[in-house]
């Protein structure tokens, strides 16, 4: 009985080590940083020139009070741009990715609230034409997993953080 318990524990440890080798490595982290960074930069580039339109989209969600809504609507594209570049470059990687993850969580909460209310509105993600739906939620969930991997990864060889540290 003790041998069987030890064997299960040993198998579990081997699986965890294998997962860590595959998921938490320099190359996966780099791919996820490129994915998140470019996505947030592209989202920002589409929103910044159309700030008033984006603010109108934020207001359609009917979640935030007016003063916070305006602040969020005007500040979010700039935050996406700044932190998108920081994640892409690997600059202050954990902090930058944590901020990106918090943005993703705010998007996911807004999506869930809107879907629960039965709202049919434009996403406001990249352009004002794409409709909000479950696919948007699950896309953000995948981005959140990528962001979590970056935040938790100790592997960051291909980053400005690593270059500055030397």
List the helices and strands and how they pair.
Layout lengths: L1 H22 L2 H22 L3 H10 L5 H24 L3 H25 L16 H19 L7 H6 L1
End-to-end distance: 51 Å
Largest sheet: none
Helix count from the secondary structure assignment: 7
Taken from the alpha-carbon principal axes, the silhouette is: globular
Number of strands: 0
Radius of gyration: 19 Å
If you had to describe this structure to a student in words, what would you say it looks like?
There is one protein chain. The chain is mainly alpha-helical and 166 residues long. The chain has one domain. It is 77% helix and 0% strand. The protein contains seven helices and no strands. It has helices at 2-23, 26-47, 51-60, 66-89, 93-117, 134-152, 160-165. The model has no long low-confidence stretch (mean pLDDT 88).
Keywords, separated by commas or semicolons:
166 residues
